[in-house]
Amino acid sequence: MELKTGSRWKSAVCATELAVVRPAKEEVTLECGGRAVIAIGADRPSDGVVAPAHAAGTLLGKRYVDEPSGLEVLCTKPGAGSLAVNGRALTLREAKRLPSSD
Amino acid sequence: MNISLLLQMAADAMPDRAALGSLDYAGLASRAAAAAGWIAGREPGRVVYLGLNSPAFPVALFAAAAAGRPFVPLNYRLPDADLRRLVERTTPCLLIADPDLLPRVADLAGVDGVSSDAFLAFAANGGSGALETEADEDDIALLLFTSGTTGEPKAAILRHRNLAAYVVQTVEFAGSEEDEALLVSVPPYHIAGVSAALTSIYGGRRVVQLPAFSPEAWVALAARERVTHAMVVPTMLGRILDELERGGETLPALRHLSYGGGRMPVAVVERALAMLPHVDFVNAYGLTETSSTIAVLGPEDHRRALAGDAACRRRLGSVGRPLPSVEIEIRGPDGAPVPAGTPGEIHVRGEQVSGEYIGRKVIGDDGWLRTADSGWLDDEGYLFIDGRLDDVIVRGGENISPGEIEDALRAHPAVQDAAVFGLPSEEWGECVAAAVVIEGETDAQALRDWVRGRLRSTKVPEQIHFRPALPYNETGKLLRRALKAEFSRT
Fold first, then answer.
1. Domain boundary among B315, B331, B365
2. Do B296 and A98 touch (CB under 8 A)?
3. Residue B347 falls inside a structural domain
4. Last residue of a domain, which of B315, B334, B350?
5. Contacts of the segment B344-349: beta carbons below 8 A, 24+ positions apart
6. Which of B38, B203, B218, B453 is deepest in the core (most CB within 10 A)?
């Protein structure tokens, strides 16, 4: 899967939708709820269930990062599944608050 | 990602929160979705917006994005001939214009005109679908004609990926307190007007729009709407402070005031800090071509400056440090980076940086954009802006920046305003000239002595011209080149 910056994906097993903020340095498989994510325009398979080990959920507007590969994604729609890359759970990125300037 | 998704996310997370006037986030998003459907049904082309700050502006901005059409806000203050030429450069287009502005350009070939009132009515009657889009993030989101102090305006291109990167990397989603309200007084055709709409909506802040700036109207609206956040350009701040002093208003709800868009005299900042001690001040530096801000001087820096130590005070004249998501380098004429403390051309790189105009790309293949601004970094990475590279005076081989000479002149009690520029000189190539606005008693020799007491002798203006006022463009940029042209002729 080509996780280009700005490209959009959705979970195959829950309502989660994602946008890539920063690409991975190497080829990785992004999973949500224990299954590889699918293109935003694709249809969700009907047999999908969130795997119990990947059911911590995603939060709208939060950024998740996989430190080893550098992949960072933004949750644009929340869901019941949680995110992983090659089996590693992604971590919530605590953004440093910048003073607003606009 | 497409910028319309920023609004859809906000509407999903905070549907009932106040967004703009009487509209909540769900209402704003449903209007943008309906307007996007309406736009998609018209002939293909760009979406041109010709109007003051009003709800039609953010609705049209997000609707055009969702419909995959470039959005082009135009300067309604331009004379007819200039405005019509710009509209001709954007055709074929769907033109959304304030009712009184529509007749100025609606007759042009390739223009499908609609009044902003009619547009908002279509948007309000369109049901409540989500903002869906097929548009690619490489698509053009925005075309902005840069103010062009000389020559024909250039159309700067900002793509969805540039604007979305700026917003996502600098703003915490839904991170605003529920009572926060942002007063927008910069016009829709300025990058700060667009970025204010994007960042406040993503952050969950209510937007209060001022259609046309006057200090009286700004202060009255800020007080009435209990505005907590605002952004002003340099020429606005001094006038706002005068109005506060005159009327006695203290703006107790105001928490955060950012300024940018041109060089702010340090004296005005110090006055603002003293008059509004409950407010956090932020200085921001950015360009149209960088999707707005690339460096900020934050509230802590301002407080430290007020508290006193000399290095911190000096940094009040800086624009702070680069955002974590951008890189800034100062490079010399040979293109190589220069050490801290040495002036050169400011270069910037980051996902928010576009550096493209219609028909011309000015960004390098390595992603670095030459800003044509001259500046330097201090040893802690604070960025000081000297001005446009074109404004730098080359006197006998020495590069002299007008900014610090202007600051020195403005510090004189009788000087209200000052502009410094180079004029042709047989002896030096260029000599230092100044135009000053004074109130009270002084003369050219006294001002020269004043500058000589503060700066080295090569920076003392050889010519000083007294003027009733100095030329600024409408967003507060001092037009040194206009003075240079005027005095070069005489």
1. B315
2. yes
3. no
4. B315
5. B344/B374, B344/B375, B344/B376, B345/B370, B345/B371, B345/B372, B345/B373, B345/B374, B345/B389, B346/B371, B346/B373, B346/B374, B346/B375, B346/B383, B346/B385, B347/B371, B348/B290, B348/B294, B348/B322
6. B203
Residues B309 and B415 in one domain: no
Instruction: Please state the separation of Cα B285 from the chain's center in Å.
Output: 8
Q: Which residue among B1, B9, B229 sits closest to A100, beta carbon to beta carbon?
A: B229
Number of alpha helices (DSSP H) and beta strands (DSSP E) in chain B: 15, 26
Residue B327 lies in a domain: no
**CATH at B183:** 3.40.50.12780
Domains of chain A by residue range: 8-43+50-92
Residues of the domain holding B237: 4-315
Q: How many Cα neighbours within 13 Å face the side chain of B224?
A: 10
CB contact under 8 A, A95 and B172: yes
Q: Do B1 and A101 touch (CB under 8 A)?
A: no
**Nearest CA distance, B25 vs chain A (angstrom):** 15
CA gap B384, B389 in Å, rounded: 13
Q: Which of B209, B211, B259 is nearest to B239 (CA)?
A: B259
Tell me the ipTM for this assembly.
0.92
Given a contact cutoff of 8 angstroms between Cβ atoms, the answer to whether B325 and B315 are in contact is: no
**Per residue of chain B (490 residues), what is the pLDDT tens digit?**
899 999 999 999 999 999 998 999 999 999 999 999 999 999 999 999 999 999 999 999 999 999 999 999 999 988 899 999 999 999 999 999 999 999 999 999 999 999 999 999 999 987 667 787 777 778 999 999 986 555 678 899 999 999 999 999 999 999 999 999 999 999 999 999 999 999 999 999 999 999 989 999 999 999 999 999 999 988 899 999 999 999 999 999 999 999 998 778 888 898 999 999 999 999 999 999 999 999 999 999 999 988 877 888 889 989 999 999 999 999 998 999 999 999 999 999 999 999 999 988 889 899 999 999 999 999 999 999 988 888 888 888 788 888 889 989 999 999 999 999 999 988 888 999 999 999 989 999 999 999 999 998 999 999 999 999 999 876 677 889 889 989 987 6
Tell me which amino acid residue B91 is: T
Is B27 found in the same domain as B140?
yes
Least Cα separation, residue B95 to chain A (angstroms): 26
First to last CA, chain A: 36
Nearest CA in chain A to B5: A76
Q: What is the pLDDT of residues B229-251, one digit of tens each?
A: 999 988 899 999 999 999 999 99
Contact B198, B163 (CB under 8 A): yes
Token pair recorded at residue A14: 């829950």
Say if residue B276 is in the same domain as residue B402. no
Residue A19 C-alpha, separation from nearest chain B C-alpha, in angstroms: 7
pTM: 0.90
| Residue count (chain A) | 102
Instruction: Give Dmax over CA atoms of chain A in angstroms.
Output: 47
